[in-house]
Amino acid sequence: MMKVMNEQEFLDIQNSLREKINLTDCFEKDNIKNVAGVDLAYWTKDGHEYAVCCIVVIEYKTHEVIEKQQYSGKIKVPYIAGFLAFRELPLILETVKKLNIEPDLFMFDGNGFLHPRHMGIATHASFYLKKATIGVAKSYYRVREGLDYTEPGMTAGSFTDIVCDSEVYGRVLRTHTGVKPVFVSVGNFISLNTATEITMNLVGKDSHIPVPTRLADLETHTARTDIIQRL
Q1: Model pTM?
Q2: Is residue 6 part of a domain?
Q3: Strand stretches in the chain, DSSP E
């Protein structure tokens, strides 16, 4: 995949994978034991762009951290809007290789189905991870010019759906009463209702962001600082 540098080829890959997206639950919810949070942080050195990917695996019911892994390297694909996965997936897959525990589900600090072609990082990565995935973004990704969202109610658990051409792309979810919402979209092999339920179950008292991606985000900032200081 890293040899593909042409935008049309990126588009062809996304369109071919898009046909295989499964928006149903391909697992038993009661069997979920471990959930992995995935995030990346970037920096630039000598005109080159680098990133570190951090994965934090937690126990689903207790939110206890049971494993952390990271992998860093040079970014070899330039930024092109709508094709983020081609930049990030190589580092993600290298980090996954280092895991000793096999997560039952992966949660990404980003989008999945909430994407112009339904191929955000959470969806794209699922075809390589072979696991159910969820995208939970902190900011809104407008998939079409002028497509805004409706604020959900102010109580925890309130949500509104993001609909485009009668198709539900994602969900605006209030995880804590009175705080700003997050943007949930399925990655793959899972329904939006189940993704919403799991997201709510993974929110702790300290933040409106689910524990796996919140911890992964914190790990990336620490890891990036440590790496830059060693350079």
Answers
A1: 0.95
A2: no
A3: 34-45, 48-59, 65-74, 105-108, 132-137, 159-164, 167-173, 182-188
